[in-house]
Write a structure and sequence with these properties.
It is built from eight helices and two strands, in the order ααααααββαα. The protein is mainly alpha-helical. The chain has a domain at 15-94 and 148-171 and 233-275. A two-stranded antiparallel sheet has the order 1-2. Helix 2 (16-51) runs antiparallel to helix 3, helix 2 runs antiparallel to helix 8 and helix 6 (149-188) packs antiparallel against helix 8 (231-270). The chain is elongated and about 70 Å long.
Amino acid sequence: MGLLDCCARCLIGAPFASLVATGLCFLGVALFCGCGHEALTGTEHLIETYFSKNYQDYEFLIDVIHDFQYAIYGVAAFFFLFGALLLAEGFYTTGAVRQIFGDYKTTICGRGLSATVTGGHKGRGSRGHRQAHSMELVCHCLGKWLGHPDKFVGITYVLAIIWLLVLACSAVPVYIYFSTWTTCNSIANPSKTSASIGNLCTDARMYGVLPWNASPGRVCGQSLLSICKTAEFQMTFHLFIAAFVGAAITLVALLTFIIAATYNFAVLKLMGRGTKF
């Protein structure tokens, strides 16, 4: 019963909003980074296979795609660390709020976590002393950050605005592929359009993907329809959609973090605990 009581009390103090937001954040970033990376690779192959035979025409595009792919690695690493830090902040502030309302009491489990965070008792001997001292320094620095939920609200708010721009940018390739897919449907069903099939084209130059002097730069008619029927085009299109959905999920996670951290900060502020606790 002691173990069950410990687990029950720890669950009572768990920040469920932060846990959900962390799960959404990791899921969204995984979709965005993984699917986005593969979709960019597929786009590179489609461009160099069907839209231009001259490497000089799409050399700059290849460089941009590779830069974005390297940036994706950094985004994945950053959000993994930032999500873990926000989850720790959620545990920290939620525990303080629930102690104020008397909904959370320290148990053996809580004391164990507290001892871990504060570095516990110093070990015997010089080695144990150095280890305890180093742990205390790390936890002291971490505690200074976790003790300022207002800073986390501000940082997450700025990050949400930046990610909103990322979401808008991730919608651009979805729009381009959707327009191409719509054009292919018109070619496949000529009775639904009054335009000539030969005049139905997708011009990569029009979207800024290729320079205007690129040759041929566009594909029309049955040639375009054959591209749309390839598994590579279909897969790349769906990968971009998945990356867009992942970016949207990540934005929802950031907003959830903001709401939860703002609530905890407001309660602590109104209860006279200030911004430090």
